[in-house]
Write a sequence for this structure.
């Protein structure tokens, strides 16, 4: 019999708590970096929650499942891996306490643990259902009015706005520390300004950088991060196999080959067969065949010279004969280029790679401003710039040179840079959850206190959780949402459970100073209660070219960007003055994080039994059942 283990709620909580204790060391403004060492002596120093979790040697299936959920969420949004785990552990503790208090029914369940498991599953399902049905309405009333909307111009303006700068600085502060957060955020803003698009479609620019980041960045070890910079054009991470100098005054023409530069002999009617005894079965000898092949390659290079081609880019390693003929024709050759780089080159140049060497057309020829070697660190690469790029493409690319003292730190900086792009992309994209535009009075009267009944205007229903909304960092989102959920919890018990779990995040942020946590919480709550208006105007930089598709400038009068956040004009109390110094967080990322955590809780508590096998899983049959497992590189090594 195969070993079977029944999984109880306390076992899940113990496993998640163990993972929580690992990431807790690097969480918050006072958190430090975690040092990992391998048996080979290789060391890794990082503050990234995803890198910390994926570097662990995990054997327990539940731990692997949790890490996989964290990794997938971080890959999609670029942020929130440590908060994901802390909030997950807090929710499980709340569910465990609620399930323990509920009396067991012996007739229905065989044991106390079975009753607790059933109660925990019910609470997890109710939490997820509440989040999918009502959470966006609660956020729209209790959180959204205190946010700041970022415009396209703010992200691409030459003078970085306070909002965008603090959003990036707070993000890099949690990844790289306070020392380098300002510099790397400036570099990110510079990249966004240089990768400008026609009609200022910034989400397309962010998507372009995110999709092509492996080909757009060059890691350079042995230098401080302050040496990182942008380079116009594309850097191909290969050196010239055959090199000739070209003048920068004349455009350079290049052709991309995806296969070996050789002929398909069956297309030309030439077949060379060798018998079992080594005798030729055809009249053609090997010498005659070699001469014919060389003559055919000479015809190909003659065709290239007629088209003015002087650079050959190849995805594979070419033969010595091809390199010799290229040298005779004074053509540069670059071999073994990665698929990502060739795809980016074809996209930017507007050309298609050559599929058959006899069928080279002008559509296969790319015009380059220059093609020259560039030395980055100890490696020499190929640097190209595209001629008349703005007329053909929507984006002007820049390659990012990411420097670091060692390979591990350089890789950490590059991953943080890409995660920042994903975070901005998540912020700029509207949420996938459909927002209801017409709500009943019962669902909208979420904020009811001793002062007034706060209902949500119809104009706000059209812009709930759309693009570009940010909030002060340091637990502001959790405090605001917790207060809104407690008001809503008068009619819904699970919302009160979620509200208590959310407060654990700011409590851990200010774990070094509990008084500071209470002070910040009281300031935020006093600001909410002292507002004389239900909704003050939402600060929105820009009008027609703003981020959202909601109400226009007529519905939301623009406010001075220096104020950044809503303020109560009568009392003069400003939430901006409370926590703006701690940076900014993306509301879209926070909302997606909360949904991902609740989905993970529901999935974990549905596991009842673990069956251990001695054979590898059949991935083909699993894929047919829509089940997949993607192990990380670190898991494959261990």
């Amino acid at each position: 019999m195969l070993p079977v283990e029944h999984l109880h709620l306390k076992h899940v909580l113990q496993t998640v708590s163990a993972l929580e204790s690992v990431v807790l060391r690097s969480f918050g403004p006072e958190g430090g970096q975690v040092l990992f060492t391998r048996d080979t002596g290789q060391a890794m120093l990082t503050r990234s929650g995803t890198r910390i979790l994926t570097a662990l040697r995990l054997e327990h299936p539940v731990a692997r499942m949790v890490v996989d959920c964290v990794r997938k969420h971080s890959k999609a949004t670029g942020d929130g891996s440590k908060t994901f785990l802390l909030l997950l552990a807090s929710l499980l503790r709340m569910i465990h306490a609620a399930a323990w208090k509920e009396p067991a029914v012996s007739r229905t369940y065989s044991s106390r643990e079975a009753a607790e498991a059933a109660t925990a599953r019910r609470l997890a399902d109710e939490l997820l259902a509440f989040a999918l049905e009502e959470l966006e309405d609660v956020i729209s009333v209790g959180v959204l009015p205190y946010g700041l909307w970022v415009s396209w111009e703010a992200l691409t303006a030459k003078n970085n706005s306070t909002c965008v700068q603090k959003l990036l600085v707070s993000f890099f502060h949690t990844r790289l520390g306070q020392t380098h957060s300002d510099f790397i955020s400036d570099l990110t803003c510079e990249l966004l300004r240089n990768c400008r698009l026609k009609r200022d479609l910034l989400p397309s620019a962010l998507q372009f950088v995110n999709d092509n980041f492996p080909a757009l960045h060059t890691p350079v070890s042995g230098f401080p991060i302050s040496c990182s910079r942008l380079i116009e054009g594309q850097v191909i991470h290969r050196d010239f196999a055959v090199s000739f100098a070209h003048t920068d005054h004349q455009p350079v023409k290049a052709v991309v080959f995806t296969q070996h530069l050789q002929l398909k002999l069956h297309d030309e009617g030439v077949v060379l067969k060798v018998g079992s005894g080594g005798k030729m079965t055809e009249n053609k000898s090997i010498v005659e065949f070699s001469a014919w092949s060389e003559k055919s390659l000479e015809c190909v290079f003659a065709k290239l010279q007629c088209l003015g081609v002087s650079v050959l880019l190849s995805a594979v390693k070419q033969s010595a004969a091809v390199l010799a003929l290229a040298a005779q024709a004074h053509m540069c050759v670059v071999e073994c280029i990665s698929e990502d780089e060739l795809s980016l080159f074809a996209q930017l140049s507007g050309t298609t790679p050559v599929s058959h060497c006899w069928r080279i057309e002008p559509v296969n020829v790319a015009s380059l401003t220059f093609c020259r070697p560039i030395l980055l660190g100890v490696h020499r690469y190929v640097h190209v710039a595209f001629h008349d790029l703005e007329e053909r493409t929507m984006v002007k690319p820049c390659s990012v040179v990411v420097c670091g003292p060692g390979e591990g730190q350089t890789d950490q900086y590059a991953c943080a840079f890409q995660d920042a792009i994903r975070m901005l992309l998540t912020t700029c994209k509207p949420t996938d959850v459909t927002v209801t535009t017409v709500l009943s009075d019962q669902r909208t009267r979420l904020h009811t206190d001793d002062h007034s009944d706060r209902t949500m205007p119809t104009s706000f229903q059209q812009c709930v959780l759309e693009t570009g909304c940010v909030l002060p960092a340091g637990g502001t989102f959790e405090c605001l949402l917790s207060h809104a959920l407690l008001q809503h919890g008068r009619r819904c018990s699970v919302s009160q459970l979620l509200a208590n779990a959310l407060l654990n995040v700011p409590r851990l942020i200010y774990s070094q100073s509990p008084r500071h946590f209470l002070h910040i919480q009281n300031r935020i709550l006093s600001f909410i209660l002292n507002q004389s208006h239900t909704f003050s105007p939402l600060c929105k930089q820009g009008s027609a070219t703003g981020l959202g598709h909601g109400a226009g400038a007529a519905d939301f009068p623009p406010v001075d960007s220096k104020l950044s956040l809503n303020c109560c004009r009568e009392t003069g109390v400003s939430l901006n003055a409370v926590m703006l110094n701690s940076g900014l967080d993306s509301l879209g990322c926070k909302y997606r994080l909360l949904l991902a955590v609740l989905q993970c809780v529901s999935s974990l508590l549905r596991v009842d039994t673990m069956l251990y096998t001695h054979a590898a899983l059949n991935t083909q049959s699993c894929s047919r059942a829509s089940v997949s497992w993607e192990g990380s590189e670190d898991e494959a090594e261990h």
Q: What stands out?
A: DSSP finds 27 helices and 20 strands in the chain. Residues 242 and 346 are 21 Å apart (CA to CA). The longest strand covers residues 365-376.
